Amino acid sequence: MYPDRNPLKEKLEQDKCIHGLYIQTASPDNVEMAAAAGYDYVILDLEHGSFGYSEMLQMIRAAEASGIAPVVRVSQNCASEIRKALEAGAVGVYVPDIQTAEQAEAAVAAVKFRSAEATGLRGACPTVRSARSRGASEWPEYVDWSNRNTVLSLLIESQKGLDNLDKILQIPGIDTIIMGRFDLAQEMGLKGDRYGKEMSEKFELFADQCKRAGVPYLARLSSLNADKARAEYDYWIQRGARIFNLGSDRELIARSFSQALHPLTPPIQEQNASGA
What is the pTM of this model? Predict the structure, then answer.
């Protein structure tokens, strides 16, 4: 990506919508197919995905080659893990389970290099992959590019995080904010009901707080029906959302497998029952 402008930053600055997809399997092919389908970015999920650093690096290469922005969801708010994802070539990171303003500040510091404009603490090496191994002579340009182009997304996944949301939103350097509905539903004892009445009310309040603070937030659509999904999409755009995650490769592949088999299942069952 370096030295080109991060297209996610560009679109958000232009008040345009961006659309992404979680990749949870070790599949460069799925990254390429997401690009071919027209997604803006993929989130390579190191927290819940079934792959490690080496596979992540190959998927970042696939993303770069196919023209889709690679973002990495790290497994924890850890400076070294964030740094390794960015040095591999990720143009953004998702940092999970932010509960306090202090944790948000630590995530910002891990993403930013120290400079005249930023008080970051990110470690430095002039020959990392993301700097294209160009060496110390071009290091100032890379530092400036990275501080301006890297997208930091924080996940709020607990009631404590929601209670501290207004303070978190005041931390400079946060590009986008996400409410982790499923983790919250689990914490609340809702057995995964992330789109029910209680969670929907929480998300409406979350959206209001983000909009007041001027921090872009992510929305996810609950309906699989095309017309209802479009109505949801239009509603959340009107409410200020500009970032949309549309599921994961596991989820979409499993759904496609089921949809392909479903029309044939009753005849096969009847055939087996008849002993044919």
Answer: 0.93
Chain mean pLDDT for the chain: 93
Q: Please report the domains of the chain, with CATH numbers, ordered by start residue.
A: 7-273 (3.20.20.60)
For the chain, the maximum distance between any two Cα atoms, rounded to a whole number of angstroms, is 78
Give whole-number Cα distances, 118 to 10, 20, 113, 115, 170, in Å: 20, 28, 7, 5, 16
Which run of H or of E encompasses 8?
A: helix 7-13
Residue 91's nearest CA partner among 69, 113, 106 is 69
pLDDT in tens, 167-213: 999 999 999 999 999 999 999 999 889 999 999 999 999 999 999 99
Alpha carbon of 125 to those of 120, 135, 267: distances in Å?
A: 15, 8, 62
Q: Which residues contact 271 (CB under 8 A, 6 or more apart)?
A: none
Cross-sheet strand order for the sheet of 176-179: 176-179, 151-156, 92-95, 69-73, 41-45, 18-23, 243-248, 218-219
